[in-house]
Amino acid sequence: MSCPNIMVNYSCSTNMTDWEKAMNQLYTFFYLIIFIPGLLSNTLALWVLCRFISKKTKAIIFMINLTIADLAHVMSLPLRIHYYIHQDWPFGSGLCLLCFYLKYLNMYASIIFLVCISIQRCAFLLRPFRAKHWKSRYDVCISVVVWVVVGLCCSPFILMRNRPDSAKANRNCFKDLPMRKLDFRLAISMMAAAELFGFIGPLFIIGFCTYLIVNSLRQRNRNDQSTGNTRKALRMVRVCTGVFLFCFAPYHINFLLYLMVTQCIITNCEVSRAIRQFHPISLCMASLNCCLNPLIYYFLTTEFKQQLSQHGSSVLRGRLMSMESTSSYRE
Question: Considering its fold, how many domains does the chain have in total?
Answer without folding.
Answer: 1
